[in-house]
Amino acid sequence: MGSHKHLTLEDRQAIAAGLNEHFSFKAIGRVIHKDCTTVAKEVRRNHSVKRTGCWGHGYNNCAYSFSCPRTSVCADCKNRRYIKKCRLCSLCNENCGRYKPAVCPDLLKPPYVCNGCPKKASRCTLEKHIYEAGAANEKYLSTLSGARTGFSLTEEEIRQMDLLVSPLLKQGQSIHHVYVNHRDELMVSESTIYKLVDTGLLSARNLDLPRKVRFAPRKKKKEFKVEKACRIGRDYSSFLSFRDANPDLPVTEMDTVEGVKGGKVILTVHFVKAECMVAFLRDRNDARSVTDAINALYEKLSPEVFCRIMPLLLGDNGSEFSNPSALEKDPEGNDRTRVFYCDPSAPFQKGSAERNHEFIRMFVPKGKPFDNRTQDEIDLMMNHINSYKRPGLGNRSPYEMMAFLYGEGVCRSLGLERIPADRVVLNRSIFIKTEDGDP
Question: Taking the complete model, does pTM exceed 0.85, yes or no?
Fold first, then answer.
């Protein structure tokens, strides 16, 4: 049998066909080479619920739906002219005090669904459980994607946890000691607190954990994704809706370019309209360093300019963007921007920034570290990239477009400098030689 393998769409089509032919779970399992319990769990987990009636009768989930003589349950019924008895109207389930919900007894035993039931279309007005291959596969993919997007912690829950945990950690207490004494208040596991500290979502840092910094990090480390609760109202569909309602607002895309795992990284901030990008060298790829970089931009540009040119921030689901409220509000708590996230495993949704990263790889190829670079070198690299003329900009450079859209003053505030066309270099020869001779 194909153990430890996910069901495919073809498997689900075979399950649906078997249910329609009244096959047992064991018989269906033999067809798709799976255990019968796998088939049973799949049917119970991924079936669809439909509220439809039968021929001549609308949906009515009441136990008295075929025998009730009542009329005029609704005083202002608009259907009275066409429907004489209330049992023929689905509204009686909501408004009738005699309503008693009914469940088909056949749904309480295998196959747990209405596939192949002869009463489904002829004389059943109850809620129907139908297993359909396409709908089941979509439900499975949605569940799989949601399970990989991280922990379901709201921003308020993280804030309350920070107020409780961080002061105690800064007093020298261990996470285990805090967890044991405040387990009922925290409502998360001990390992989750470690992850929240490690990703910079709490005020306490790894330096406040003396024993933790003594140990070298493990080679393989599971990435802490953006929490599902933080994505509510900030997912890509919400971004598209907000942009459709505000088409004139410019979009800024955020992303991280890594050198080697565990080393320095750069945060890229890409202004889509101008295809202009600025980059910040960071010691660690955590949420705190991203917040610090955005706060630095906020101070350099001034609040008015920042809100005008960066009203929409679009990032991916990496751990470094796990604190959206810190990005959306300034240190005084004033609104300054809106943060949205791409769908998981969909980098093409911020394709403008991804294409610009190809220029960065001309200077620092994949697998090469940023550890021996300085912020001045990163700024120089971005100045050369932003001075390179693009056909998509009408043979203008991103710097020229940025200056045209927002003015030379904004370019200076961002630290941008124009490199003459004949002096533009798109390789790492612009970097100062390091001690080991690697340019």
Answer: no
